[in-house]
Amino acid sequence: MSLSIENSLKAKIKASPILLEEATPSLKLAVYHRGQRRAQMSFGQDYDLYDWASLTKIVFTVPLYMRAVEDLGLDLGTPVQDFLFWWPQPQVRYRDLLTHSAGMRAWRDFYRHLEGPLDPVQRFEQLKVLLMDVGPEPRPSDVVPRPALYSDLDFLLLGAALEEIFFRDLEVLWKAQQEKMELWQTDFHPRNRRPKPEDLYAPTENCSWRGKLLQGEVHDENAWALGGVAPHAGLFGPLSDLERFGLLLRKTYLSPRGSSLASQEVFRRFVRRALPRRRGDWALGFMLPTAGKASCGGHFSPLSFGHTGFTGTSLWYDPRKDLLVVMLSNRVHPSREKREFVRLRPMIHDWIYESL
């Protein structure tokens, strides 16, 4: 571990015009360079477990599609309707959903229409009925392809398709994936019941809809209404497991033999650019840096890939620099209206890069 990096980063954060304590009550981060941990730091209040939010997409759902491609020969260019026969949108392919280029709207309040016991299997079956009426927004032009639009609906449909592809419900699929990746401390909270004492979890929002402060219950409304198990959000875990996952991504990218996650060939297909720049900066499920406004700052190379989570989580890996940065925070506590951390996060990545 490099004390110089930690000292440099502490000094930069202290001198920042954006006060960390105003940006988020809690922040944990780890930095790996060439596979070696160079820093592991904690700021503010210290918690063991955090709501990973949309990192669930790349930790859970995207690796399952890697498995489907590698083990089952799934062609991502085929229509999703091949498995979701009830979804009346034959033109939409798996790759369209993975690259957020299917034309779906960004979000819908499904949580207001799900009812009954908070059983994840029953709730997800209800969701499928609601998804029957979901489709791409009308195209403004048949000539100019529409830009990508980040949408949780894409991943809800991908999750529904996974259940048909593997003949298993989402919770069972996660358990198998969890074992492959050895993320033993990371899990969903079925029925929104936290398995450990409340004070171990970083609190998120004081939610008016749920009438309480969320602590150990998923912040995302739709994931909560689905019983805590969803393809787009819902995982909770510690920094150590996010580090482990990041290093697994690194190994899979660099090793000719791949890893337990996927072969190198399949993995590299998922993390390289899948859309023209004019349409968006997306690989297959992974974010790519957007010039001038990337959450990983301005120094990460165009080969970099990662993802963020609404609660203030992120993971970025730059193969060119062999640099991995993972962050967990609860920037939405006590309110999602706090936006300072979104501005501070790219600065922190820049300072890390410069300190190397």
Integer count of domains: 1
| Total number of strands | 9
Strand order of the largest sheet: 2-1-9-8-7
Computed structural class:
alpha+beta
The sequence of SSEs as H and E is HHEEEHHHHHEEHEHHEEEH
Biggest sheet character: 5 strands, antiparallel
Cα-based radius of gyration, to the nearest Å: 19 Å
Low-pLDDT stretches? none
CATH-defined fold name: Beta-lactamase
Overall pLDDT confidence: 96
Shape: globular
CATH homologous superfamily (4th level) name: DD-peptidase/beta-lactamase superfamily
Task: Please identify the top-level CATH class.
Answer: Alpha Beta
* CATH architectural label: 3-Layer(aba) Sandwich
| CA distance, first residue to last residue | 12 Å
Short description:
By secondary structure, this protein is of the alpha+beta class. The chain has eleven helices and nine strands. The protein has a five-stranded antiparallel β-sheet with strand order 2-1-9-8-7, with helices on both faces. The protein has a two-stranded antiparallel ribbon with strand order 3-6. A two-stranded antiparallel ribbon has the order 4-5.
Describe this structure in words.
It is a single chain. With 356 residues, the chain is α+β, with helices and mostly antiparallel strands. It has a single domain (3-136, 144-355), classed as Beta-lactamase (3-Layer(aba) Sandwich). Helices cover 35% and strands 12% of the residues. It is built from eleven helices and nine strands. A five-stranded antiparallel sheet has the order 2-1-9-8-7, with helices on both faces. Strands 3-6 form a two-stranded antiparallel sheet. A hairpin with a 4-residue loop joins strand 8 (313-318) and strand 9. Helix 3 (55-72) runs parallel beside helix 6. The radius of gyration is 19 Å and the shape is globular.
